[in-house]
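Researcher: Here's my situation. A collaborator sent me these components and asked whether they could plausibly form a single complex. I don't have experimental data yet, so a predicted model of the whole assembly would be a useful starting point for our discussion.
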Amino acid sequence: MSPSAVIDAALEIVDAQGHGALTLASVAARTGVATPSLYKHVAGLAELRALAGARVMSELAQELTDAVMGLSRDEAVSALLQTGRSYVVKHPHRYALMPLDALHHPLTADAGAKLINVLLAVLRGYGLRGAAAVHATRCMRVIMHGFASLEAAGGFGLPERLDDTYQQLIDMFVASLPKEKIR
Amino acid sequence: MSPSAVIDAALEIVDAQGHGALTLASVAARTGVATPSLYKHVAGLAELRALAGARVMSELAQELTDAVMGLSRDEAVSALLQTGRSYVVKHPHRYALMPLDALHHPLTADAGAKLINVLLAVLRGYGLRGAAAVHATRCMRVIMHGFASLEAAGGFGLPERLDDTYQQLIDMFVASLPKEKIR
DNA sequence: GCCTAAAAGCTAACATCATTAGCCTGTACG
DNA sequence: CGTACAGGCTAATGATGTTAGCTTTTAGGC
């Protein structure tokens, strides 16, 4: 066994039973090991959650990176937001693992930075600098996180198509970006 | 004591120590009662959380209602979004109590409906109907929830002014609404 | 004023967890 | 061949949620 294998098991449990079911006991059961043995690989439940969250964030960052490769500006923004949502739809339970303040925690800071960097890279195509870039990044995050967390939690009850709502948000955001690249 | 008094104590604990500190043991200590005695008023921890969440949602709905009274359209939307955020800034820990899928749970459905109704009322000024009203409501929710949850969780690390980011989001949303009332 | 029944409290007990301490074993490496 | 350590184990402790069953308080009717 290895720390990574423990995280694998943790993610399997989360995928199957939701993030509330992630306990050291359940991970131990799944890996066929006594609970205290997990401490040889992981410092405790808090660290395991952080590591699992970091794993998810890295995976998401990778998918986003792949999705925007070769695209720029509106196309890239749209692809990024769509891909972010589709990841959450694919693994609804994983979303809750990602810490919202990843940068504040050493175990998740790297993964968090990777994620933010994709957003920044996409916005670079608009020539946004300094404060403007920060605000735009935050807006994008708000939209992606707001929608994804609501969708993952089953927060949208009505039957109207979620795709349409999300597209409307994307259009809204894209419309707020500069039409000409700022030089 | 009464169920309501138990919820009061729960909210005091959450305000002071965060929603992770909300346990039956801590509520019992604060109300000067043995833990099992709480079951005379509340069915268990899950119900207490739901009831506390409903209380918070009602309170927020009331503040939002007060804030938009006498306003319409862009002014009302702006006031609603600003007031929503300021509630979260005032009581950062309470935000995490509100269930995202309030309508699915009988104990929180009423409060959830109250909240949604404020949003719908404000959007009525634009003459939005049917699916369009649903999408617009969702967009507003995404923006308010996305921003508030990130802010409450300390998810914005950089020093740029959050007020500016939020204003940008509000402008973005307002710009997406019809300029003339649809009749 | 008293009596009874329900409301509200208590203690004891149990299950589940996380966590720590201390022990055992196999294996890689000198 | 011996030793050190990685990785596993059992036992024990302390929170916590929850249930059961008993006691006390209280409110209302007689």
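Model: Some features of this prediction you could bring to your collaborator: Chain B touches chain A at residues 99-101, 103-104, 131, 134-135, 138-139, 141-147, 149-150, 153-158, 160, 164-165, 168-169, 171-173, 175-176 (CB under 8 Å). Chain B has a mean pLDDT of 96.
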